[in-house]
Amino acid sequence: MTFDRNAVKQEVPIDPETGKPYLNTVAAIQVSAHGTGSEVSPYVAQAIAVIRESGLPQETNALFTDVEGDLDDVLKVAGDAAKKLAMQGYRTSLVLHMDIRPGFTGQLTEKPALVDKILGDK
């Protein structure tokens, strides 16, 4: 199966292990607790630990943790990270931005590399 980066529509691949459609997803996840004071880093760190322990490819930047995997797995880890704080009784916010692109993997590194290539060609 060949995937065309410029195609509007792709064939959805089937995961050979599960037999289910594989909907590759790149997500920016931000979880924070409210009412904890001016420094939320200790709470954000708890949520990021859940994401990192998921085993999904991820990277953390100043505002979000970017994650890549099957849609169901990404949604689960986002929910689990939010629950980590909510189950402690904190009012919790979850910001989730996703790019669901069947047929593509490795987009956490490929997308920035493509932008760098385009910028380098100018």
From TrEMBL:
Cross-referenced Gene3D superfamilies: 3.30.70.930
Give residue ranges for domain Thiamine-binding protein. Answer: 27-115
Concerning InterPro entries, the annotation shows:
MTH1187/YkoF-like (IPR029756), Thiamine_BP (IPR002767), UPF0045_domain (IPR051614)
Q: Which SUPFAM superfamilies match?
A: MTH1187/YkoF-like (SSF89957)
GO CC terms: cytosol
Q: Output the superkingdom of the source species.
A: Bacteria
> What's this protein's family per the entry?
Belongs to the UPF0045 family.
Q: What is the protein name for this chain?
A: Thiamine-binding protein domain-containing protein
**What is the native source organism of this protein?**
Bifidobacterium biavatii DSM 23969
